[in-house]
Automatic annotation (TrEMBL):
Lineage of the species this protein comes from: Bacteria, Pseudomonadati, Pseudomonadota, Alphaproteobacteria, Rhodobacterales
UniProt superkingdom: Bacteria
GO MF terms, alphabetically ordered: lyase activity
UniProt KW keywords: Lyase
Source organism: Tabrizicola piscis
Family matches, as Gene3D superfamilies: 1.25.40.80, Deoxyribodipyrimidine photolyase-related (1.10.10.1710), DNA Cyclobutane Dipyrimidine Photolyase, subunit A, domain 3 (1.10.579.10), HUPs (3.40.50.620)
Protein name stated in the entry: Cryptochrome/photolyase family protein
Amino acid sequence: MVRLVLVLGDQLTPGVAALKAADKARDVVVMAEVMGEGTSVPHHPQKIALILAAMRKFALGLEAEGWRVAYSRLDDPENSQTITGEVLRRAAEFGAGDVLATKPGEWRLLRDLEELPLTVTVLEDDRFIASDAEFAEWAAGRKQLRMEWFYRDMRRKTGLMMDGDKPAGGQWNFDHDNRKPAKADLLRPRPRDATPDAVVEDVLALVEARFPHFGRLRPFRWATDRAGALAALAEFVADRLPRFGDEQDAMLEGEAFLSHALISPYLNLGLLLPLEVCEAVEAAWKAGRVPIQAAEGFIRQIIGWREFVRGIWALEGPGYLTRNALGHSRALPAVFWGGETRMACMKAAVGQTRDLAYAHHIQRLMVTGNFALLAGVDPGAVHEWYLSVYIDAFEWVEAPNTLGMSQFADGGVLGSKPYVSSGAYIDRMSDHCGACAYKVKVKVGEGACPFNLLYWHFLDRHRERFRSNPRMGQMYRVWDGMEAGHREAVLAGAARVLERLDGGEVV
């Protein structure tokens, strides 16, 4: 009997588990563009366009390889507009009672599949280097889950940048050689934009008509097939990887890309695989084209951090999405949706996000995420925003990064302390502060940077939780050493900032 083989929009890999387990001569591949997935959150138009165009091209590739593909376009009149609705429709059409699926990267979708009145076999997504069971075994019995120790095990497992059983260069990471502050000489060749073809243009027109979400659709710069993704990887390795380590935390006004890879959308869609990406980087290092600190820093992000957050997502389960350890409840400020602001760093990060559906990890963590955490914004709202606006955001990777690393909503599962800072960090790593309406050196009173005020307010209101944290004790000693009148003025200034946020005023 025929089986349905479900392929989702972020499973665009010929060797994905459901396809590997299928019979090309008998089974039918089901792929569907559905409004329900495009509006589960208000996804950025460029994200929707990338996924739909890549799906269409992937389906054509499967057909060329001899697969029978039942593909539903968003504007097909019979489209039921949900994944499960399309599976049921195709099951009736082909007389199928069995479905093969690769584990989705969203708990919502997994639940929906498991509730189908069909025999659904959900296979593990083996495109990841560490399986769910392997990560759970690694995590079992540990008091704290720290990426560094997991990363070392992944290095040993893959053999990447290893010299026998020792790390290449005699150390596991080279952070001390990386992450230099922003300087004008950091500018590298701008990544080349992909040229939209007829498939992409059709999708762009469809998205323009159907999804009036936050974010600009054009110009659309992203590759939408494996060949384009491989070209983007090769360009990064040749042009920007040599200085990737230096620039990975830097921010420059008007320079969105610096030496970042811009391949995370392709990895998260399945157009590239994590091991092949790391092997390309390792090969460039072995050939002497890339310094060890750049190669190691990049590989750590892939087989270390990316795999680690996927493991956390799978281990913690759907309840992780509702965590709010700090009890934050403030509504997401209008600035996150492009509202007016006097803060240069927030204006730059949100504006770039609107225009490109992209911002690098420090803009997300230490600008927008830091501001939301300091202001006490509801982490669920922050999670939904990040999932909505970034082209590489899928729940399995976005939720742990946002709820755990950025907002500390998981209470320390992902990190030992919250990632909070005053304006000094942003000033050190960027050139935003020089042209800002606020003065980063001003700690209190008129013109004081909101990050300065809110930083101490955050520490003060969460004192009972964090004062014994060994990584935060020094800052509490600094706070306690300030003159009482100064502390009162700081807290009063922070309260005014929060009142203005709550009242919809410009901050």
